[in-house]
Design a protein that fits this description.
Two copies of one chain form a homodimer. The first copy, chain A, starts with a helix and ends with a strand. By secondary structure, the first copy, chain A, is of the alpha/beta class. A five-stranded parallel sheet of chain A has the order 4-9-8-5-7. Chain A contains ten helices and ten strands. Chain A binds a DNA duplex through helix 4.
Chain lengths: ~220, ~220
DNA sequence: CTTTTATTCAATAAATTTATTGAACGTTAC
DNA sequence: GTAACGTTCAATAAATTTATTGAATAAAAG
């Protein structure tokens, strides 16, 4: 093998990792796995695809070394291989958000339609939590809240929001958060709360980012 | 458009960026553009592909927002869009090197075959340069040396090395560097120097990394 | 104005990636 | 043991990506 062939093989190997990142479904899966480890079934349901399809995508991610599996009883849990994968995913997402104008337009359109543009930064939330100025709700599915959540947050899955609106305070600012900047559960929740006359805002990023920023969380370790 | 469609569009848009990163040729181009801006012809030659093919790949990179173009006379120069692209590329490359065992095996095989396994870290080189303990040579093509190089480095393109061996000192350690950890020019140079009885070592990373680490360089600004 | 040179475009065939389907596998619960 | 359940496999058709070829543009040089 001459030098040129060596070089081609190197980039070909490297592309195995980037190819694994090149599919929208797999990106959505990674974004979900940033929250914790989940079964194939859960992933399929939450990233909106068939179980067989999710399984195939997960195997691509596994072969590329981005995720790993742990068997627990009859379930197989997939998780990010390590913190470096999470960091790279966050950098890529950030790059995408900064370089693809259409993403921002999509997000703005969505929020404008729901009449809520303003987002709260992590810094601001951190301060307001310290001064006990806000009521914080985690609107992700309960399973994810149980794996770990922002300290002082209560669980109120967005699917149950309508029936449990009366639990929310009417005299305080409510902050809702979900998985991350691309997750729309908190946007939907805020829209609904505002329609009910509540003072609600969404956190700009989500749980995985709060964790990566090393801010206070409550984690269930297994 | 309902929430699910919105979400799919978001990840689809994001995948436009990652798809641009999913091809080995385009990775090799990015790695080259980490050194500076170059014409299509130069890129085609140095990344070993036809001009038409390089042009097509470059357009994919441009549409995804990763690179930009500047026209100068009859040449069109391609360059990384900004520092964030460089940082993301470095993170991805690092992730690849850490997660793909075959890359490391390829590199080790290559170096073993050439009987030189030991690499010098940036830290060590920095110290040795300060104490004037090493003779530093940049073995990249002269064009790239002229765009910018490590301070105190002399230019000795690996293609001219054979004829200019007598310029090298026989009584000092020689350090050779090139574009980065995936670039093999410095490995070839070190192998040749050792065969001639010189005391030579390669820098682990390359110019773009030295620059990103904010170590002393000489840059030609235009 | 014509020629030269650098780059891009358009068309095509080959290769790769993808979603879907239904069967197969392996573990748990009974 | 057998049934139920979660996951993977294998086969296939549709969609996308890729390299190659030769023609088309656009700027510079003569």
């Amino acid at each position: 093998m001459d030098t040129r062939e060596f070089k081609s093989s190197l980039y070909k190997q490297l592309a195995k990792v980037t190819k694994a990142l090149s599919n929208p479904h797999r990106l959505e899966i990674l974004d979900l796995l940033a929250q914790g480890s989940f079964s194939v079934e859960y992933i399929a349901e939450n990233a909106n695809m068939s179980v067989a399809n999710a399984s195939q995508h997960l195997q691509v991610l596994k072969k590329s070394g981005l995720v790993d599996t742990v068997r627990d009883g009859k379930y197989i849990f997939y998780e990010l291989y390590d913190g470096r994968v999470l960091e790279t995913w966050r950098a890529l997402r950030q790059l995408g958000l900064s370089r693809n104008q259409e993403i921002n337009e999509l997000l703005e359109d969505y929020r404008q339609r729901k009449d809520q543009m303003n987002l709260m930064s992590s810094d601001e939330l951190f301060q307001k939590l310290k001064n006990n100025e806000v009521y914080l709700v985690d609107v992700r599915p309960e399973e994810e809240y149980n794996l770990g959540h922002i300290k002082q947050a209560g669980s109120l899955p967005h699917k149950q929001l309508k029936e449990r609106l009366q639990e929310l305070p009417t005299d305080r600012e409510i902050v809702a958060y979900c998985r991350g900047p691309l997750c729309l559960m908190a946007d939907e929740a805020v829209a609904l709360m505002r329609k009910e006359g509540l003072h609600a805002t969404r956190l700009e990023n989500g749980f995985a980012d709060w964790l990566a920023e090393e801010r206070p969380v409550e984690i269930t370790d297994k």
